């Protein structure tokens, strides 16, 4: 993870080399976090001071922090220097003690590393922590600045039955590792969607990142999945599905019985979602619903759900035989199931569509679908076809086949 924005440049030609997508994404995330911590009105006041002061002059990073400090009455430069002069971002671990209507939070921080290793540099951030409670899930109950490696914070007037959540609206540029009692308290309202959607996304996104890094067990991720059958938001499911995909890939190298049981577990969770969505788009349907339908049905197909595969086959044969149109958002999902489950016949049919379609998006869908077969001998034929086909050799999707 890059520095955020403060980088010395001696030559303008260095700009394209230094300022890449990661740099800009981190800058945006940090500014969003600061805006949320200060409040939008205060943040905009600071920006007005900055823009008016330097409308005809050059400025440096410290000038922006000075303007925001004036507007907020806080030392923004000290706070933000920990974000702009250090690489990476932190993991905040939190546990709680309930003392009547007081909630004592024990927070600690360290650099988050995706591979689970320990950072020997002992980097320290000043982290703007926002806290919400279940009685007012969309409001910020408390704002705290975590300055040290460890810090205790007391939140007053909290019902003993209320859950506590950090990083309200997922605006903070840090991950959160909850103690198991705090995590399990969140799950019922995650299931009923009382927790706002951006917070559900943050919980899901953090969870599997923590599992991958070895800081949380897969059991906790599966508990979160069990609470997701009512979920209808694409961004939340996209994050959850990434975790499902990673676990599925790992299990594919172990006993097939374990993989089969995992698939049954996923099907049980996803089937109610698929039933609500159906196969057909509704009039004036939100584009996110269309994306969610493709994601859920595609995952059911990869989990070998017979009913889903059968319906996809029927729609594909109608499309292949009678040249009827498939919905663009479901085309790749359906093609993928043909490549995955229908062996040589599916490959030949996809190959015919590819060679006769004359439309780039359909060609790309075929290319991605063909190598999804689990038949290693057929996969060799797919690869040979790609090598021998001149049109495919120059195709931007060729790396997808090589990955498979």
From TrEMBL:
Keywords: Aminopeptidase, Cytoplasm, Hydrolase, Metal-binding, Metalloprotease, Protease, Zinc. Its EC number is 3.4.11.14. Coiled coil: none annotated. Its cofactor is Zn(2+). One of its GO terms (biological process) is proteolysis. It catalyses: Release of an N-terminal amino acid, preferentially alanine, from a wide range of peptides, amides and arylamides. Residues 6-83 form the Peptidase M1 membrane alanine aminopeptidase domain. Pfam families: ERAP1_C, Peptidase_M1. GO terms for molecular function: alanyl aminopeptidase activity; metalloaminopeptidase activity; peptide binding; zinc ion binding. GO terms for cellular component: cytoplasm; extracellular space; membrane. The keyword Calcium does not apply. Its main location: cytoplasm. It comes from the Eukaryota. Belongs to the peptidase M1 family. This is Puromycin-sensitive aminopeptidase. It comes from Wuchereria bancrofti.
